[in-house]
Design brief:
By secondary structure, the protein is α/β, with parallel strands linked by helices. Helices cover about 40% and strands about 25% of the residues. It is built from eight helices and six strands, in the order βαβββαβααβαααα. The longest helix is centred in the C-terminal third of the chain and has 17 residues.
Length: about 200
């Protein structure tokens, strides 16, 4: 198997780091070499958060260069547009179809780009783009904080990692009191894209 490069992005408070930790744990339990690094920046103020994660037979650096990401998982759609340059041609982009305007936009100093602009931007790099109503689905489950795990479930169908190993990782990383609803979110995310993933 070739090395797999995944970029996870979003806004501070969305659980980006937890998502990448669960993914890293799952890949390690499967016996892969794993490297990851996180850029938090102004996350505590609603700023961008980016996690680079690579796994495979042998990984020597955690950083993903532009044009080398096999997959982009974004929990906020403007962040997907900002990070899409990392995708390799034909890479997979999974985008939570939800807007969290950064501070300059919230203050009315700038305008949040419309969906067509965002889709056009990502479409320059790949035609394998999936916009998912993850926030609404997490809301329907009763807890919007499960969004990150819901989206991770959608990502899982594109990865060569076994379901039982995902379960072990989720059990290891989540407190018992929130485990069941997150397992429900993960499985719901897996079902979201149907047969879109790799066989």
């Amino acid at each position: 198997m070739d090395n797999i490069n995944i970029l996870i992005t979003g806004i501070g408070g969305q659980g980006i780091i937890l998502s990448s930790d669960v993914l890293a744990e799952t890949a390690m339990l499967e016996g892969y070499d794993v490297k990851k690094t996180d850029t938090i920046g102004m996350a505590q103020r609603g700023g961008s958060v980016i996690s680079h994660l690579r796994f495979g037979p042998a990984i020597y650096s955690p950083l993903i260069s532009p044009g080398e990401a096999d997959m982009l998982l974004s929990l906020e759609k403007l962040e997907a547009a900002r990070a899409c340059r990392f995708l390799k041609p034909g890479g997979v982009a999974l985008v939570n179809n939800y807007a969290i305007p950064p501070l300059p936009l919230a203050n009315g100093k700038e305008i949040y780009p419309d969906d067509q602009i965002i889709k056009s931007c990502i479409g320059q790099y790949t035609d394998r783009v999936y916009f998912i109503d993850g926030f609404k689905k997490a809301q329907a489950l009763g807890d919007t904080r499960t969004l990150n795990i819901f989206m991770l479930g959608s990502l899982s169908i594109f990865l060569p990692l076994r379901e039982e190993t995902w379960l072990k990782s989720l059990q290891a990383k989540l407190p018992d009191k929130i485990l069941n609803i997150n397992l429900e979110a993960f499985n719901s995310g897996k079902r979201e894209l149907g047969n879109a993933g790799f066989s």
